[in-house]
Amino acid sequence: MQLNYQFPTRAVKHWERWIGERDLADVAVAAEESGFDIVSTTDHPFPSSAWIDGGGHHSFDPFVSLAFMAAATRRVRLLTFILVAGYRNPYLTAKSVASLDLLSGGRLVVGMGAGYQKPEFDVLGAQFDGRGGRFDAAIAAMQAAWTGEVVERDDPHFPASGHVMLPRPAQRPGPPIWIGGNSRAAMRRVAEVADGWLPFEQPAQMAEITTTPSLAADEIGERIATLRGLRAAAGRPTTFDVCFTPQVSRDPARAAEALAAAVPGYEAAGVTHLSVESHARGIDDCLAEIELFGKTLASPPSPR
Fold first, then answer.
1. Residues 133-158: what's their mean pLDDT?
2. Which residues of 93-113 are buried (b: 16+ CB within 10 A; e: fewer)?
3. Is 6 in a helix, a strand, or coil?
4. How would you class 141 by CB atoms within 10 Å of its CB: exposed for 0-12, middle for 13-18, buried for 19 or more?
5. Which DSSP letter does residue 183 get?
């Protein structure tokens, strides 16, 4: 079972106090040395104050923060978790992705989702209505740009005629795309065009806020089996990555113990990665938490 460390979202709001005399590189290096396979950051360029006051959070720019982490590490992969497809023109996104993937030595995984924050779409000049169709078109546009060939696309959303993007990403034909969310639309994208899935355990109450369906931990195996059938019907490989975020105690020791006990069941269900969602209130707690999860859950890192 591979591990993803989700950078604590609450840290950004109180960054100077949270980080103290250290910096973001210390988090990435600690994760790499503790055996984590992936580090990830999320995406909220300009959230509404109403959402923040209701329990939402701020975020660093994912490409800037992951590039900072990449420069300090050599092995650990980098995940946008999740990049909202509609917030940016896909050709700008494709350029950022290709640049970071190449400069990191092919370590980027592009986690993407449709998004659900209408006020954030509106303030960014992005289109909330019809975002699902635009998300599908954005994936195709990014993949076309990553070829490094002249792009000719007669597309109603993102047409291009005679344009080319270089340099290409290190990973060919492009970095893997993992789709976030529990919805049927998210699963369809995993089945038809993506390389992996980012589901998360979610009770019904939270589902009303995020507008993505609820998902219990004991349902993940059934959903993965459904996806295998959909991918087979689409003529695609039935082996794919599943990075699951379970809900666990905010106490790191209890969380690590619970996850260790759950790993065999998740592996049997087809989960390939567990995502550890951090709630550390300061850098010292964060580093101690990373070490604890690494000792409890991670396989020893491969020699460099």
1. 98
2. bbbbbbebbbbbeebbbbbbb
3. strand
4. buried
5. S
Cα separation, 110 vs 195, whole angstroms: 10
Instruction: Label residue 300 by pLDDT band (50, 70, 90).
Output: low
Q: Which runs of consecutive H residues, i.e. helices, occur in 3-48?
A: 15-19, 24-33
The 3-state DSSP composition of the chain as helix, strand, coil percent (nearest 5) reads 45, 15, 40
Helices assigned H by DSSP within the chain: 15-19, 24-33, 49-53, 62-72, 90-103, 118-123, 131-145, 184-192, 204-210, 220-233, 252-269, 283-297
pTM of the full predicted structure?
Answer: 0.95
What gap in Å lies between CA 178 and CA 198, rounded to an integer?
6
Domain 2-179+239-297 has CATH 3.20.20.30: yes
Amino acid of residue 228: R
Closest listed residue to residue 112, CA positions, set 91, 144, 145, 90 = 90
Report the C-alpha gap between 121 and 62 in whole angstroms. 17
Which tens digits make up the pLDDT trace of 217-267?
Answer: 999 999 999 999 999 999 999 999 999 999 999 999 999 999 999 999 999
pLDDT of residue 12 exceeding 80, the answer is yes
Tokens linked to 159: 């047409």
Placement of tokens 């701020």 in the chain = 58
DSSP class of residue 129 equals T
